[in-house]
């Protein structure tokens, strides 16, 4: 886990075979998200019901040994990664570099159709691909908990 004090982003990096997997999320999503429940139906004192209700945006980069990178934009909530887009970049540096120049270059690239518009069998294949790499329910439950812990840690009193 790469968690730099004072920084909004958190990176979880690991190896799978020859691939490098990097999951990035930000704690600011917690503050910007709209609640995913009926506020009137939940007792304000019920902390368990209130925790984990905000979706967090996660960017997943799977970099191949040959230099390409598969980028997956998703939301994580309630133990589920909801994939929004999947795109492939031949240049892994362009795909993963966190600079304004690389961000600008990525914006001009075609990222493909929305994930929900893909055939169901293709969607399931991507979900299985991620599960083989332990991008699964366990990680989807961990990320919001870690984000909440980090947000509490950095929140000014």
Structure in words:
The protein has helices at 28-32, 47-50, 92-96, 100-107, 120-132, 137-154, and strands at 9-16, 19-26, 56-63, 69-77, 80-89. With 157 residues, the chain is of the alpha+beta class. It has a five-stranded antiparallel beta sheet. The protein is globular and about 40 Å long. The model has no long low-confidence stretch (mean pLDDT 83).
Mean of residue pLDDT values:
83
Question: DSSP helix count?
Answer: 6
State the end-to-end distance. Answer: 26 Å
List unreliable stretches of 5+ residues: none
User: Can you give the helix content as a percent range?
Assistant: 25-40%
Give the strand order of the largest sheet, numbering strands 1, 2, ... along the chain. 1-2-3-4-5
Helix and strand element order: EEHHEEEHHHH
Largest sheet: 5 strands, antiparallel
Q: Structural class, from helix and strand content?
A: alpha+beta
Gyration radius from CA atoms, angstroms: 17 Å
Shape: globular
Counting DSSP E segments of at least 2 residues, the number of strands comes to 5
> How much strand?
25-35%
